[in-house]
Amino acid sequence: MSNLNYLFAAFLITWIVISAYLWMLGRQVQNLKDEVDSLTEGSELSPDRPTGTTSLPDADGHPIRQH
Amino acid sequence: MRDAMGRVSVVVWKDLLTEVRTKELFGGMMIFAVLTIITFNFAFDLTGTGRAASGAGAMWVAFNFAGFLGLGRSIALERDRGSLDGLLLCPVDRGTIFLGKFIGNLLFITLVELISVPIFGALFNLDVIQATLLLVLVLGTVGFAAIGTLLAVMAASTRAREVLLPVLMFPILLPVIIASVRATTMILTHETGDLLPWLNLLGAYDVLFLAISYLVFDRVVEE
Amino acid sequence: MRTSGARGTQLANLGLVLGVLAGISMAIGLYLGLVYAPMDAVQGNAQRIFYIHVPMAWVAFLAFFVVFVAGIMYLWKRELIWDQVARSSAEIGLVFTTLVLVTGSFWGRPIWGTWWTWDARLTTTLLLWFIFLGYFMIRAYAGDRGRAATFSAVIGIIGFFDVPIIYLSVNWWRTLHPQAVITLSGAAMPGQMVWALMVCLLGFTLLYAYLMVQKLAIEQAKDKLIDYQFALSEREAEGVTAA
Fold it and tell me: Among the four C9, C28, C70, C224, which has the fewest Cβ within 10 Å?
C-alpha cells in the first residue's frame, strides 16, 4: 500500500492554491499602486496637497456657499 | 416590563392587522406548503414503509420553504411602504421592534404549520395529532423565526434579497432541520425513547439565537 | 503622516520576518513529514497528507475565530480596523477551508474508499465553508462599506456559535444512523510523526500570520483609496457648483 499518487495530488493542489492566492495578493498590491498613481497624476487635486493651495474655489468663505 | 410587553404586542398587532387587510402573506404560504408536500409525494414514495421518515423530512422542507417565502415577503412589504423606517423612528427600543417582528413571523409560520399538518397526516395516513409533535413544531419554528427575522432584515437591505436569505439561512439552520426532522420521525413512528436530547438541542438553539438576534438587531437596522 | 509611514514600514518588516519564518518552518515540517517520519503501516503514503491537512484545518478554524472576535469588536467599537481584520481573516479562512475539504477527500479516497462521507467533522467543515461563502455574498451585495461590515460581522458571530451545534447535531444524527464508522488508528503515533505534525502546525500558523499582515495592509490601503476618491469627487463636485 503506497498511495503515492494521492499524496502527490493533494500536495500539488495545496501548493497550487496557496501560490495562486499569494499571486493574487501581489496583483492586488500592484492594482492599488496603479490606482494611486493614476489618482495623483490624472488629477491636479492630489490628495496629499493641503486644501489651501487648490486652484479651485475654496469651500469656506466663498460667497456662493453662503446662499 | 408590562409596558415593554404592550409595545411588543402593538408591533405584532400591526402585522396581523396588515395581513387581515391585505391578505398577501398567509394564503400564499399555506398553498405553497401544501403543494410542496404533494410534490414530495411524487418525488419520494411517501406511502410505503419508510413514509414516517421521509414524510417528516418532506414536511420540514415544506415548512422551511414556506417560511422563507413568508419572511422575505413580510419584510419586503415593510420596505416597499416605507413603514419599517416609520417603525424605527418610533420612540421604542429596537429590541422591542425585533421581538414584535419575531412574534409576528412566528405566528404566521406556526399557523401555516397547524393547518397543513392535519392535511399532511390525512394525505399520508400518519398519526399527526400528538401533543409532542406540537412541541417540536413550536421549538423548531422559534429557532427558524429568530434567525429568519434577523437575516431577512439584513437580506432585504441588500441588492439580492430573495437569493441571499436562503443562502445565508440554510447552513446556519442545519441543526434545527436535523433535530426537527429526527424528533418528528420518532413521534410519527411512536419510538420516542431518544426524543429528549433533540428537544434539548432545539431549546438550546432557540434560546441562544433568540438572544444573539435580539442583541445585534439594533446594529443591523442602523445601517 | 510620519507616524503612519513608520507604522507601515514596521508592518512590512513584520510581514517579511513572518514570511521567512513561515517558509523555513514549513520546509522543515515537510522534510520531517515526507522523509523523516516513517510510512504508516496501514495507510501507506496517503497518511502523509495529514501533515498539511490537519494544520490547514487548524488554520481554518483559527481564522474563523478571528472573524468572530473582530466581528464583536466591530459591532461594539464601530472602528473600521476591526472590519479590515475580519474580512482579511475570512478570506484566508475560505482559502484554507477549501483546501481542507480537497486534501481530506484525497485522503478519504484511498483509505475509506470514498471521496466523501457525512461524518460530523466533514459536514461541519463543509457548512463552515458555506457560512464563509455567505459572509462574502452579503458583503458583495450590501452596497456600502458600513453595511457590509455590520452584516458580515453578524454572520461571523452567528456562524461561530452555530458551528459547534452543527457538529453536535450531525454527530447525534450519525449515531442514530448506524454506518461503518472508520476511525483513525492513530492512538499510538510514532514520535517522528508527532514531531513532523507539530512543526507543520507551527509553519502553517506562521503562514496564516504572514498572510494576515499582507492582506490587512492591502485592505487598509483599499479603504484609504476609497476615502481619497470620495473626497476628491466631492471636491470636484463642489468646484462645479462654485463655477
Answer: C9
Grid coordinates belonging to C236: 470636484
Nearest CA to C163 out of C123, C124, C121, C133 is that of C124
- All residues of chain C having their beta carbon less than 8 Å from the beta carbon of residue B175 are 162, 165-166, 168-169
| Mean pLDDT per 10-residue segment, chain B (223 residues) | 78 83 82 89 75 86 91 82 78 86 92 91 84 93 94 87 87 94 90 86 95 92 80
Look at the alpha carbons of A47, C81, C61, C139 in this order and tell me if their dihedral is positive or negative: negative
Chains in contact with C via at least 3 Cβ–Cβ pairs below 8 Å: A, B
Dig out the grid coordinates for B37 from the structure: 408536500
What residues form DSSP beta bridges with C40? C44
What type of residue is C202? Answer: L
Q: List C-alpha distances in Å: C179 to C108, C124, C242.
A: 16, 18, 76
Chain C residues with CB inside 8 Å of B182's CB? 172-173, 176
- CA B3 to mean position of chain CA atoms: 27
State which amino acid sits at residue B134. L
